[in-house]
């Protein structure tokens, strides 16, 4: 069965002049719309092809990889607007329609929007900016510490909303963000907590103590690289710590605390040094 709006593994079943036809046993043939396919095709070859409905209502395929498939939420730019709606550039020859009825606010050419791709009742692929009907605020099936795919949405008074695994809303809190985020950005994140109301608190840092040993090893490596002294310490700003190690100040302090307990380092306000190294400027 050929899945519309998805990448399918299809066989080249016929080549007639410049036309290449793809298919599967028991399914109709699909014309490859690419004028110049990205790879040579011979009858019997299997190719990854994205299948869609063309402007005339026929099945078509492309070897180009779209920016999103049916079921995905993506950050896409408006290429044009006409009396049907807004048309988005999604990386294949036929632009993606967002009907006016599926727009929260009027979409403008050249601007990008978060949209959900879906298949309409006629089998055509379309998109909508009305995400709330596809996304749940409650995620009791998630577990604290679980790795998830995040798509950054809108800032709020508390932090930044993010879409979790294309299915749920979650929140990244401002006091735990140590780098700027942009709407539409894709990141790997973690479930920090499933709240009592089943809403999801998120973090960009791997939760728990499992990451402290690797971080401690990185700190030791940096110390060795810089003569046993690191210009970061107990009172260094979170931004400086994130710039150096890509982690929160809390995780950094846990890691240096573990190294201190092993008597491998001495911790000062603005420096960390290997045991036995001369005292830095923070020492009395």
CATH topology of the largest domain: Arc Repressor Mutant, subunit A
Structurally, how many domains make up the residues? 4
Which structural category do the helix and sheet elements fall into? mainly beta
Strand order in space, largest sheet:
1-2-3-5-4
Topology:
Elements: E1 7-16, E2 19-23, E3 30-32, E4 46-53, E5 59-62, E6 73-82, E7 85-89, E8 96-99, E9 112-119, E10 125-128, E11 147-155, E12 159-164, E13 168-173, E14 186-194, E15 200-203, H1 212-225, E16 229-230, H2 238-245, H3 249-261, E17 265-267, E18 272-274
Parallel strand pairs: 3-5, 13-15
Antiparallel strand pairs: 1-2, 1-4, 2-3, 4-5, 6-7, 6-9, 7-8, 9-10, 11-12, 11-14, 12-13, 14-15, 16-18, 17-18
Helix pairs in contact: 1-3
Provide a descriptive summary of the structure in words.
Belongs to the CvfB family. This is GntR family transcriptional regulator. Pfam families: S1_2, WHD_CvfB. Residues 4-64, 70-130 form the Conserved virulence factor B first S1 domain. InterPro entries: CvfB_fam (IPR014464), CvfB_S1_st (IPR039566), CvfB_WH (IPR040764), NA-bd_OB-fold (IPR012340), WH-like_DNA-bd_sf (IPR036388). The protein has 3 helices and 18 strands. Strands 1-2-3-5-4 form a 5-stranded mixed beta barrel. Strand 17 (265-267) and strand 18 form a beta hairpin. It folds into 4 domains: 7-62, OB fold (Dihydrolipoamide Acetyltransferase, E2P), CATH 2.40.50; 73-132, Beta Barrel (OB fold (Dihydrolipoamide Acetyltransferase, E2P)), CATH 2.40.50.140; 147-203, Nucleic acid-binding proteins (OB fold (Dihydrolipoamide Acetyltransferase, E2P)), CATH 2.40.50.140; 212-274, Arc Repressor Mutant, subunit A. It is mainly beta and 284 residues long. The chain has helices at 212-225, 238-245, 249-261; strands at residues 7-16, 19-23, 30-32, 46-53, 59-62, 73-82, 85-89, 96-99, 112-119, 125-128, 147-155, 159-164, 168-173, 186-194, 200-203, 229-230, 265-267, 272-274.
């Amino acid at each position: 069965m050929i899945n519309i709006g998805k990448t399918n593994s299809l066989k080249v079943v016929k080549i007639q002049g410049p036309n290449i036809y793809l298919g599967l046993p028991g399914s109709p043939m699909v014309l490859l719309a690419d004028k110049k396919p990205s790879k040579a095709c011979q009858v019997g070859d299997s190719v990854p092809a994205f299948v869609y409905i063309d402007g005339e209502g026929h099945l078509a395929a492309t070897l180009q990889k779209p920016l999103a498939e049916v079921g995905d939420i993506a950050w896409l730019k408006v290429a044009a607007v006409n009396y049907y709606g807004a048309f988005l550039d999604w990386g294949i020859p036929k632009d993606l329609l967002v009907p006016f009825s599926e727009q929260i606010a009027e979409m403008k050419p050249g601007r990008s929007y978060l949209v959900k791709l879906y298949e309409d009742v006629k089998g055509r692929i379309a998109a909508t900016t009305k995400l709330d009907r596809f996304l749940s605020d409650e995620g009791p099936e998630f577990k604290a510490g679980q790795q998830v795919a995040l798509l950054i949405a809108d800032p709020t008074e508390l932090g930044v909303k993010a879409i979790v695994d294309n299915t749920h809303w979650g929140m990244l809190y401002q006091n735990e963000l140590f780098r700027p985020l942009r709407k539409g950005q894709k990141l790997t994140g973690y479930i920090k907590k499933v709240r009592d109301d089943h809403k999801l608190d998120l973090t960009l840092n791997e939760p728990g103590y499992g990451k402290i040993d690797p971080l401690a090893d990185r700190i030791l490596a940096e110390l060795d690289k810089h003569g046993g002294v690191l210009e970061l310490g107990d009172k260094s700003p979170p931004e400086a710590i994130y710039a150096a190690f890509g982690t929160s100040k809390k995780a950094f302090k846990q890691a240096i605390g573990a190294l201190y307990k092993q008597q491998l380092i001495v911790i000062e306000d603005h420096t960390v040094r290997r045991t036995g190294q001369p005292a830095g400027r923070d020492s009395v």
